[in-house]
Fold:
Amino acid sequence: MLLASDFDLHAMPTELPPLVTLGNPRLSQPSMPVAVNQIVNDDFQSRLRTLRLGLEHHGANGIAAPQL
Structure:
C-alpha cells in the first residue's frame, strides 16, 4: 500500500495532463495490466507521482489512472 509519505513531492512533474471526467469513453476502456516487478521501475513510479500530484491539485479523495 502506498502512502502520501512514500512520494517525493519535489520530484513530481510541474504540469498535469488534463483530467478526464465522467462521460469520456476513455474511462470505459480497461487499463493495461502491470506486473508486480514493473512497479519499481522509474516510468511506473513517475506515473504514480503524477497521480499523487493530480489528487492534491484537484482536491480529490481518489483518482483512477485513466483520468490523467
